[in-house]
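#data-curation
PF: Archiving a pair of folding outputs for the training set. Convention for this channel: one message per protein, sequence first, structure tokens after, nothing in between. First:
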Amino acid sequence: MPQKPNRKGNSDDEPNQMIQPDEDGENDEIGQSNIKTDAWLATYGDMVTLLLCFFVLLFAMSSVSEQKYLQLTESLKSALGKQQVPEAGTREGLQFVDKDSEKQPEAVDELGGMIKKEVDNIVSEVEEFILYNKLAGKVKVEANELGAVITLSDIVIFPSGESIMTSAGFEIMEKLHKILEQFAYHIKIRGHTDNVPVGRSSPFRSNWELSANRACEIVHFLIQRGVEPTLLSAEGYAEYRPIDTNSTAEGRARNRRVEIVYERNAISHGLIQKHDGPIDIIRGGQY
């Protein structure tokens, strides 16, 4: 009889026979090894994005104004709750920049420009006065670190060894005080002499008194012409502030002088008062 085909043949005879998993689950491990395990990249990307946003926020808050910060805190309060948002940013490493302190350097620069303009105006007016009245060599004006300095030679203003103005001195001061009236700032009148001692018949004890009395003579003249006394002061320096040598006649003549000084500090003080600004923007100087 012909034999029946063996249905339990070898694996070669049934190549499509399914492989059954064994009891140890070895086949499960083979299947799982084909799954990609890069899901951690999504979490890493989220973390990097959050860090970027965090540092951008820190940068933005480092230069934030107080008004913008208050708007931000109100927004965070509504989102996170009031207890989670600090009222004072300084405790969290934030420091507000005082707007007044930011404006102060600008105010000082602006004030310095105004002072320079006033000094230049004084010098320009007096130079025109000197040119028109042909007083070159007798009256001089200059701008220096002190301010605007008008120098009057004692040859044209005072007789030798005296403190009463000459008629020519009165004439010059009559014209000059009209210019001074235009600039209502504090004026210092400074008297100077050479090193030649006063004579025995002089009413002055020394050059100190002579220089101070000459300065006072100019002060009294200006007061009589309507200048506010609080804007005037008189100083005498005798021979101790020379601008030339005392060993020659020409040098001594230059040293004998009266100076009318508009100090920069005095001008700044006057400008601040005119503009109702804070007096302590510029410190220094006595008025």
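PF: Second:
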Amino acid sequence: MSTQLPASSTQRFSAWLLIAHVVLLFAAFSALAPAFDFPEVLRLPADEILQRFRARQSLIVAVYYAFTLSGLTFASLALLLQAVFEPDDPALARLTCKAGVLAGFCQALGFIRWCFVVPVLSEIAADPAASVARREAAVVTFEALHHYAGVAVGENLAFVLQGFWTLGLGALLARSHRFDRRLGWLGMGIGALIALYSVEQFGGRFAVLGPLNVVMHDLWAVWLLLIASQLLRGARTGTTPGIRITRRGWIVALGLLLGLLVVTHL
């Protein structure tokens, strides 16, 4: 006996999870940005990062755990959307799913260090009873972990994989007869932008791409919400071929993007 969900149920669940994922991301960002000067703080010297972390540790740990959960919701979305788009192109849907699941886990692995490892290193680094060598070792350990789990895994690899997932999902949308294909072309552009941003982590001349981070994620979030609206309409109408976003829908999306840009740049 099959336990597979009907297509309309899968689309509806995927849509609501997309919305929940975006809300979780921006709720976490809105809490962390003013408390920790995120994301600019991540490029400061290690001892200064730890000092700022200690000042608001309880809040920062809680928010980073929410970010960790967002990595798991991303991986779950990749699995659900594979089921939605597999009828259009099975091979591409499976490949796109793999990129999304790996991206979600890379993000989660990068974020979760702030919840369990950084508090210990921060405590040692600020402990007046610890020897100078032990305090310095804690800072060096944090710096190494920050560059490996944070910059290499949580940012570079995660952005590369997120970019490929977005490119793949965009291609699936562009090939599908069930949804607005313009979303596909938009997604492929956003995916290329995210993949390009991954070189920022190498520093040097690529550091100029830093301000692109928040902008591209605002655009990515609005794109995900547009996909969610398409999935909900498709579930309600039985995936009528060629569901198109109305002019009003595009205007609302543009207004939402401008609102997010204002909020995330305050």
